[in-house]
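Let us begin with a simple case.
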Amino acid sequence: MSTPTPAAVRSTLAELVSEQVLTPEQADTVSTRLVALWTPGAPSTRRSRLVEVAGYLGGAMVLGGAAAIVVPTWDSFPAAARFGLAVVVTMLLLGGLVAARFAQFGDVEARHRLASALGVLAAGAAAIAAAVPATDPYEVLVGSIAALVVAVPSYGLVRGAPLLAGAWLASSVLVGDVLDRGQVEGTLPWGLAFAVVGALWLLLAAPVPGNPVREPGLAAALGGCTGFGAAEALITEDAALLTVIGLIVGAGFAAATFVLYVVTRKYPALIPVVLIALVVPASALAGLFDSVLVAGFAVVVIGALLLVAGGIALTTRRPVGQ
């Protein structure tokens, strides 16, 4: 049996894409991996990652230096100049995103990571641009909406963790500003509102057909941590009813994120599970019984249960393929 040529493999992958067996991104990834096997002297993955990290660090230093120059004098510029500069930066970053997404050279995964990073920077620049002409009370509202308007379509073009995290941040800021603008007072409505935000992000992590989110572990971690923050905010209030509600919210998010971990096997989903298990019960018991000793005892018990659960998982884990 003869070895297939790169052209034949690319043709086959194109047919699989047209038959909707593979997505274009998956086909690009497979093609890049196979070409790397055929290419003699191809750089190692570790070296490529180091070069990529160095590039990100260099870009961060350039952005940091530019910010150090511009930020102190930002308010001294005319509004039209600030708006124009922010719009130009946004368009340049979006242009870089498109170029990285559709370039025909380099590692596909590295290009997608770069495009996603450029997308979240473009969302931030768009937020700045939109906030310039807005009046003072509406800067945060308009800026967060503009960031979502850029981040969500960009994520549809280039699915990546930076853009997903940027969309989560913009949505959380937007909800907080809407609550503040509506003069909503009290911990209960704020806590429940952010619990709803966290629940929506957990839904985005659900492995259901048609789900556009490609990083379910990150979506579960972001949603679960949002729920963790909501539960803690409710518990820290000096009111028994709010403490009980916070405990229920925390337990619900811990259970939901653990279920998502079980069905997706994405380890980031365990982050809010551990945080909630270690912090929320202890905070609730300390508030209900006004005793740090009770809280410490609860942490010890929960930690022991987590150790037992981890031991059981290790001893019953089946080898891959069974």
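The second case is a distinct protein. As before, the sequence precedes its structure tokens.
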Amino acid sequence: MKNKPKFLSFLLLLLGCSNDDCLQQAQSNFIKGNYQSALVAYECVVRNNPEDYIAYNMIGMIYGQMGNSEKVGKYIDTALYINSDYAYANLNKGALAAVDGDTVTALKLLSKAISIDVNYQDAYFNRGILYENLGNYREAIQDLRFSLMLNKEDHAAYYHLGLCLIKLNNRDEACANFTKSLSIFYTDEVKKKKELLCM
């Protein structure tokens, strides 16, 4: 089984796999969670088109899913080198900076992702969480509310919005957000927090 990805790579090259075929294979395998096969197919994409910044970003994401943090940054950096205005890569690079504790860079990159795509829900959510972690609850609330305007079914955004509202002593609205979060997706964590703060 260990040689399967190498065989797939060889097969794709031997068959003269078109970029569209490789991309279709890559996306399909990524969605199914077949990360090794998706990686091989995305590598085929960048061999066919070395300027495909989306594929480089996805290779970085796959390495992240596979737990290879060393290669994540390398491929996301390559994507940004090719296209510094690719919002998704800015978000990913910002998330990496946040994990590394570099909140200044993280905020800068998440803000850049938002400036590139003003309707980028994930960027608002991630920046909101970062603001929450920094104790900047008003900014967090603003971003989380905007995130929810873009995706009214994001249970995690309701939960974190509730946490920030509690910090600003807005208990009633916080509890309403916990309830909304639970109505979308039940978790023991949210239930316990609601029971602790809202009963």
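The first helix runs from residue 4 to 14. The radius of gyration is 20 Å.
Keep these points in mind for the review questions at the end of the chapter.
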